[in-house]
Structure formats: structure tokens, C-alpha cells
Specification:
By secondary structure, the protein is of the alpha+beta class. 20% of the residues lie in helices and 30% in strands. It folds into two domains: 164 residues, 2-Layer Sandwich (D-amino Acid Aminotransferase, Chain A, domain 1), CATH 3.30.470; 178 residues, D-amino Acid Aminotransferase, Chain A, domain 2. Strands 3, 4, 5, 6, 7, 8, 9, 10, 11 and 21 form a ten-stranded mixed β-sheet that branches. A six-stranded mixed beta barrel has the order 12-13-14-15-18-19, surrounded by four helices. A hairpin with a 3-residue loop joins strand 4 and strand 5. The radius of gyration is 22 Å and the shape is globular. The structure holds pyridoxal-5'-phosphate (PLP). The site of pyridoxal-5'-phosphate (PLP) has 12 residues, from strand 15 and helix 6.
Length: 411
């Protein structure tokens, strides 16, 4: 049996900031570099071997305003099986259908599952576009190899996904804010209860038309700073998009909801570092105590933070567009106490989550240690200026209003 070999890499790197005591300590990066289960001797993923079986009963289209996230699916799905002996078998697009799996299949027992979340958009000319699909492919390959599943050639998978999206493009509403949410998923399909690397896998993609996250405009959320449950930890898998990372977060979310908070703000360690918010990366805007300079801050990719595509896009655009306005843009550790003090001094200008589903999600307040840390919004405001600007910048690229290399035309 193939042995999964993992090369452990724990790297020490200098912190990029000396602004706070915590940040001036060296940043320890935790992440395992896993060897992929596939190798070059096996058959590669090959879009030329794709077969398409079209549905004989196309679904009626829903009114765009009635779409609920992830509830409706398009007519077709893409699926590719992998075996250890043969590598990637022929890709197939078929009518959307149930999977048939033996009850002993390893995904049900040991959580051999990873996934992606990405979107296809229709521009004003009716052309279909993906947003930075290379980043989703890279992340899926990292997630898959961490749980001993096979990897694939990113360009080939993007080509196959594009075929599916084009076939089902009638499901993408032609308005800003609407899109087709794509869910590439990989599962281990070996039918044995022995705990070991799966000898077979299935890579598939389903697609769901979605509307804007905030159909009637932004609604700022209230968070509960969560210290009694931990989403991710050094040496763990919080930087991978594994299904196993998500189920354990639901009970803390329900508990926060029972106290009137929409989301958890995940803290880490004695220092109470701020990490992520719900299933989004967290951003804050602080004003410097002495100079008043604005700083856009997000936690560094130290192995405990998901490498969000939106996070990376926000950082890149902020470096390009906010730094010339005199801002500082920083990836560094920051604590709940730092946010509390800044809020008390009136220096916490704004806080927002960032992710594919909503692009940005403004935050009104954070409940922490019996206090409410106010995040810079007036009572009448639902978003700060930075979150609004970032959303506008990213949407303009996604919908092809601003031509940009991140937006990839596929039809
Ligand atoms: C835990 C977590 N953090 C951050 C993100 C945001 O990532 P992205 O911008 O790639 O959607 C997601 C969403 O996928 C997530 O699940």
C-alpha cells in the first residue's frame, strides 16, 4: 500500500511589524507540506477525454430575487474518478444526480473531504467570467494533498469547470450581485474501514445560482469573541479547506446566536489573537495613536488562517490604492485587547469580514469579556467607507466593468 509521506515544515520568520509587543516577536509559521497522492506515472486529468451527457429534463429557472444560497442547483455536474492504479479517469459531465457510495466509503468515516467555493459571473455583454480561479485550484490541491488525496493540473480542471459553467450558463442571472456559486469537491472513495490513504477518489463540481448576500444593502453584524472553542491551531489544518474544519464550528455559532450574535470571532491563545470571523477573513482599520495614520490590518498566514482569495484581493488592491493615500497595509498578529483599547480611544475606524460569499461583511460590535467593543459605525450606518470601497473595487473586476487579469473570460 502506498505510504503517505509528509514532510514537516515549521518555519520561523521575522514579523513584518514592530508596532506591538506581540507583533515584534518572531512569527512562527505552522503548515505541513504534504506529498500529493498522485504521481507523474499516473494518467493526468485530461479535458480532451471529457464526455457530456445532457439532461433530457431541463429545470425551470427561478426568479433571481427568490434564490437562497446553495439551495438550487443547475442541470449538470462534472465528475472525475481517480484510482491509485490508473490516475485520473475520463471526466464526465452528466445530469445533476445523486452519488451512490458504499456505507464503508472512507469519506463517511474519516472525513476525507475537501472543497472550494468560487463563482462565475455574467458581464454586461453576457460573457461568463471566473474570478482568480487559479487561486482556488492551488488551494484545493493543498487541501487535497494534506489529507492524502490526489492533486491535479490546475489548468485542466479550470478548462473542465468552464465547460460545465458554459453548459449551464443560462442559470447565471445577468445582474450585478448575482452569480453562479461553484463547489468543487474532492472525496476519498475507498471502501474499507482501515485508516489509511484512500486508493480511490472522486473530484466533482456542482453549481448553484446565487443572489447578492445583502439584497437590500449592507447589514452590519454583531460578533461574539469566542475563546472557549478554537477554530484552528498551530500544526492543525485551519489553513486548508477541509469539511472537517466546518462541522465543529456550528455549535459555537448556535451558542453565539442564542445570545443574539450573528457570528463568532475566533480568538487564539492566551494573548487572544484575532484570527477569523465565522467563515471569513477578518480585517480592521485602526488609526495610529500618535500620527493618526490609518492601518488596514489582517492576521498573517501562519498556518492557522485560511488563505482567502478575497483576503488576498483586498490586500493587493489596498496596497495599490490605499497606500498612495497615506495608509499602511499590514499582515500582522493583533489581539482583542488592542481592538478594545483602540475602540475606547476612538481609533477603531472599521472592521469587516472578507470572503467569496459576501465579498465584505461590515461589523458593528464585538462582545468580549462582558463588554461591547464598538467597531466605528454610527447607529445609522451599516457599513464603513473602506468596506464599501473594497466591495465596489472587487465587484467592478468580477463583473468585467474594470478589465483586470483576475477576471478570466470563459465564454
Ligand atoms: C474559514 C474561512 N476563512 C476565510 C474564507 C474566505 O475565503 P475566500 O475569500 O477564498 O472565499 C472562507 C471561505 O471560503 C472560510 O471558510
Amino acid at each position: 500500500m502506498r505510504a503517505a509521506t509528509f514532510a514537516r515544515s515549521a518555519v520561523w520568520a521575522a514579523s513584518r511589524s514592530s508596532r506591538t509587543l506581540q507583533a515584534s516577536r518572531p512569527l512562527r509559521l505552522f503548515s505541513i507540506k504534504a506529498e500529493a497522492a498522485s504521481d507523474s506515472k499516473q494518467k493526468a486529468l485530461d479535458p480532451n477525454r471529457l464526455s457530456i451527457t445532457q439532461t433530457s429534463s431541463p429545470k425551470p429557472l427561478s426568479q433571481p430575487e427568490t434564490l437562497v444560497f446553495g439551495r438550487e442547483f443547475t442541470d449538470h455536474m462534472l465528475a472525475i474518478e481517480w484510482t491509485q492504479e490508473d490516475g485520473w479517469l475520463d471526466p464526465k459531465i452528466t445530469p445533476y444526480q445523486n452519488l451512490s457510495l458504499d456505507p464503508a466509503t472512507c469519506v463517511f468515516h474519516y472525513a476525507f473531504e475537501c472543497f472550494e467555493g468560487m463563482k462565475a459571473y455574467k458581464d454586461k455583454d453576457g460573457k461568463v467570467r471566473l474570478f482568480r480561479p487559479d487561486m482556488n485550484m492551488a488551494r484545493l490541491n493543498k487541501s487535497a494533498s494534506r489529507i492524502a488525496l490526489p492533486t491535479f493540473e490546475p489548468a485542466s480542471f479550470i478548462e473542465l469547470i468552464s465547460k460545465l459553467v458554459n453548459l449551464d450558463s443560462r442559470f447565471i442571472p445577468n445582474q450585478r450581485g448575482y452569480s453562479l456559486y461553484l463547489r468543487p469537491t474532492m472525496i476519498g472513495t475507498q471502501k474499507t474501514l482501515g485508516v489509511g490513504p484512500p486508493g480511490s477518489a472522486l473530484l466533482y463540481v456542482i453549481a448553484s445560482p446565487v443572489g447578492p448576500y445583502y439584497p437590500t444593502g449592507f447589514k452590519a453584524v454583531s460578533l461574539e469573541a469566542t475563546d472557549y472553542a478554537v477554530r484552528a491551531w498551530p500544526g492543525g489544518v485551519g489553513d486548508k479547506k477541509l469539511g472537517a474544519n466546518y462541522a465543529p464550528c456550528i455549535v459555537p455559532q448556535l451558542q453565539a446566536a442564542s445570545r443574539g450574535y450573528q457570528q463568532n470571532l475566533w480568538l487564539f491563545g492566551e494573548e487572544e489573537y484575532v484570527t477569523e470571523v465565522g467563515t471569513m477573513n477578518m480585517f480592521v482599520v485602526l488609526k495610529d495613536k500618535k500620527t493618526g495614520q490609518k492601518e488596514l490590518i489582517t492576521a498573517p498566514l501562519d498556518g492557522t488562517i485560511l488563505e482567502g482569495v478575497t483576503r488576498d484581493s483586498v490586500l493587493a488592491l489596498a496596497r495599490e490604492r490605499l497606500v498612495p493615500e497615506g495608509w499602511k497595509v499590514t499582515e500582522r498578529k493583533y489581539t482583542m485587547n488592542e481592538l478594545y483599547e483602540a475602540s475606547q480611544d476612538g481609533r477603531l475606524v472599521e472592521a469587516f469580514g472578507a470572503g467569496t460569499a459576501a465579498i465584505v461583511s461590515p461589523i458593528r460590535t464585538i462582545a468580549w469579556k462582558g463588554k461591547h467593543v464598538e467597531c466605528g459605525l454610527k447607529e445609522t450606518e451599516e457599513s464603513g467607507e473602506t468596506a464599501l470601497r473594497v466591495k465596489e473595487w472587487i465587484e467592478a473586476i468580477q463583473y468585467g466593468e474594470e478589465e483586470h487579469e483576475w477576471s478570466v473570460k470563459i465564454a
